[in-house]
Amino acid sequence: LSGDTIMQSLAAHFQPASVVFLTDVAGVFDRPPAQPGAKLIAKLNVDQHGAVSLPKTEVLPLEALNSRLTADRVDSQLDDEHDVTGGMEAKVGSAAKIASNGAPVYVVEVGSQHALEAMKGNVPSVGTLFQLDRRVAQLEPPRNK
Fold this sequence. Notes:
single chain; 145 residues; 5 helices; 6 strands
């Protein structure tokens, strides 16, 4: 059982205003952050079913990322060598599931000023935000999860 899975359960039970995931990098990148050209993804939209997509206004080179992702397909794009419980793959999947229920999720670097901002309930200036795309949520009827 990973901390990411535990966070999903806690979020489902307590329905927090927001959730913060702390990592050893600044957020979610379009490829492992140690690779040349890696770009931080500032925002990811999530639909009611947990499918993740980039906002249309996001301007990033995304050679390693499809324009439409699901948590199950992200795994081949992300590096999990630092975390035996699933690494960034698990965080992306958990963050998407939490955000699909309405709570924004911030992925930020532990020990940074950005982490402190997020933990105080503020929007951090650096990190990745997973948020429910309410335009999609209003168009689609809910389905059983």
